[in-house]
Amino acid sequence: MDAATLLGLVAGIVLIGWALVSGGDPMAFVDAQSAAIVLGGTFAATLINFRVQQVLTAIRLAFRVFRGNGYDHAALIQTLVGFAERARRDGLLALEEEAEALEDSFLKKGIRLVVDGADPELVRSVLETELAFQQDRHRMGQSIFSTMAALSPAFGMIGTLIGLIQMLGELDNPDAIGPGLAVALTTTFYGALLAYLFLNPIAGKLRLASEEETLFREMAIEGVLSIQAGDNPRIVYEKLWAFLPASMRERVESGETAEQAEARRRGEVTA
Questions:
Q1: How far is residue 65's CA from residue 17's CA, in Å, rounded to a whole number?
Q2: Would you say the pTM of this structure is higher than 0.90?
């Protein structure tokens, strides 16, 4: 799981849980009716607003964010520079076998097109079209979670109105005032908590993951076209280098992979 996502979730849950426990009886914040209003209402409105398949796709994208994106930009540069060296030495056809060993289907498609002798404009068009549709899918996922984040506080307010109506209808019965007020306030709490601790952050994380993947794909396109053009490996390196922020450039220079960098930060030794 992505370390920042895990840390944020744990910190948020622990701190809010501590506040609930230290302030009195935490069971006062547990209300099935409130949860049904907020969770059920948010989910139902989301299904009305989007298609089922779109919602399922967004949920899968969210799980990918929790697992981490797995895009190692430094390793991509090393791979493309290696392909450029092989292509200048042995020709583009020599890349066919190495391309089949690639795990990244996007990069594999680009190298295959180059090996097959496709026109550079066609290679660019095919890869950029795939990238554009990938961005559309990601924007849809972000939109779904942003919509859910906007809906959950609204259903919290609906629960508040329900609780207040129940309470006002039983003013002559003091025993009913407490439960009605509890529903009124607890649903607002549930709606705000769901929106601002879970749904909005997931939408933001999806946006960040999409930006990182887009950078990775754009680097792949530039590298593939440079290899096809017969650029010197050093030129390929410099072109791809320009895409990277300073933190990534240090790893590229040292030849360190993402896994090795993470191990170094933890103080571990890797081969």
A1: 24
A2: no
